[in-house]
User: Fold these one by one.
Assistant:
Number 1:
Amino acid sequence: MADHIVILGAGTGGTLTANRLAKRLPHAAIDVVDQDDRHVYQPGLLFVPFGLADPDDLVRPRGEQLRPGIGYHQSGIDRVDLEANVVHLTDGTTLGYDLLVVATGARLVPEETEGLLGPGWMEDVFTFYDLEGATALRSRLAAFTAGRLVVNVIDLPIKCPVAPLEWCFLADWFLQEQGVRDDVQITYVTPLDGAFTKPTASATLGGMLEERGIDLITEFNTGEVDGAGGRLVSYDEREVPFDLAVVVPVHSGAEYVGRSPGLGDALDFVAADPHTLQSAVAPNVFAIGDAANLPASKAGSVTHFEGEVLVENIVRFLAGEPLDASFDGHANCFIETGFHKAMLIDFNYDTEPVGGHFPGPVGAPLLKESRLNHLGKLMFQWFYWHVLLPGRDIPGLGSDMPTAGKQHPPT
Ligand SMILES: Cc1cc2nc3c(=O)[nH]c(=O)nc-3n(C[C@H](O)[C@H](O)[C@H](O)COP(=O)(O)OP(=O)(O)OC[C@H]3O[C@@H](n4cnc5c(N)ncnc54)[C@H](O)[C@@H]3O)c2cc1C
């Protein structure tokens, strides 16, 4: 009988895994489950509040991104029975599997922060991390001509850890374009001890905030968002006043993970081997993308690179062969910096972002603003729908982080 592969989640990771598998294992039965039919190009959410992207252009039907022959089930997931190898869907149906891929991403849980969903939510307190929030913020920002604009990452991990910094840089650009920058104070508030996690990139990005007159408040663990009073309050009782707050809410894994004994950790993410992506809970369960608890960034690029190794390992697992332990934590992120420029960072588990060029000695500049990187960021949307999701290979660019163009030691 054909192997039955069930993939939970039809976002970035679930879609590209299904499409790659359909090519590698044409006789396998592949079923994909998602709760809705709106595949959002999430990197585009960054641009929506500034009127640089139209919300409707970011959304496509999920089933249409899957190759013919892949089964698509639109339903919530109730739980996974790991003993019986069965997934229970909220529509009452069940799917048995030989191999399961967890690709249900990360979930925003604003309700975890006191006051965040209270008075002021979607009036003076917004997030751009979902389509509804990014769209609502657009009109509020257009009318914001003076006052204190605060951008706050409440806790880590979050998807695309550079996105809130990009939002600050774009806000600086946007407010200058509107002619009101001198009347707006922008403050970036983070639980980290610097602008970013990795030392060299943190120093570069911190310097860029300073150059742009954006204040940086570090080691701020937000305990309460007081929308009515216009204050962020930290657990150690510091306060940051705001007229408009743009927050990145706490993230967790999908709720069904918590209802599936053994599958997830305390935050409902799935522990997996950082190099093979096989889950810690059962050999026939793998995890990809934001749903996985790995020491890698939660980013579409990481998910893409993971996909190549994951599919190889699914093929090997089903053939009874040893797994390929080659995933190196590769992440590659364009950082939009405003004024039609962007930076690029490329790193993995062992190498922090450094200067140089990508993917080789001649290429896009690393850790440096350029127009070429900005064009790369804009082109990525086309690349996402037409290359990444269909599971096409990029000639000369595999999942391993390239080292040829990188400067050592870091500059
Ligand atoms: C504002 C923003 C900007 C970003 N910018 C970038 C960027 O520039 N570069 C980059 O590389 N990455 C970026 N990312 C991150 C990137 O979008 C994610 O890391 C990537 O989409 C992760 O893919 P995934 O498959 O793990 O999760 P997702 O693509 O989120 O897919 C998860 C899927 O699981 C489904 N699901 C969840 N729970 C259930 C359930 N209970 N039942 C059924 N279905 C369920 C969801 O509906 C969803 O379709 C950005 C993200 C945001 C929010």
Note: The chain has a mean pLDDT of 96.
Number 2:
Amino acid sequence: MFNVHTFQTRLEEELKTITNDLRAIATYDETTDNWEAVPGEAANQEADNNIEADEVEEWNERRSTLATLEIEYRDIKRALAKIADGTYGICEISGAPIEIKRLEFKPTVRTCAAHMNEESSLPL
Ligand SMILES: [Zn+2]
């Protein structure tokens, strides 16, 4: 057995960091449990074509950063929920204990080593 509190502490720290990163570029909608990207300040300025192109680029970058952060955010929330209901560290496919080394490397991992290739097919 492993000490689940070690992982809980680490996940809670990571959640704090991610939430701060998300808040910098997005707003949280409680009713849908979704983060929405917010445009940068530059978007409100009157723009010539160059600025507009920069803004589109910035906006696209922002949305792709948001997508990445949102996945991490959900992964961490899921892992914390599993800690709360006592299923943390158990492979979601086989029900076998997940190798401690895998959890240490990535605390949000959802499968044991034997099923790592199937992790991406698990529902969100
Ligand atoms: Zn497994």
Note: The longest strand covers residues 26-29.
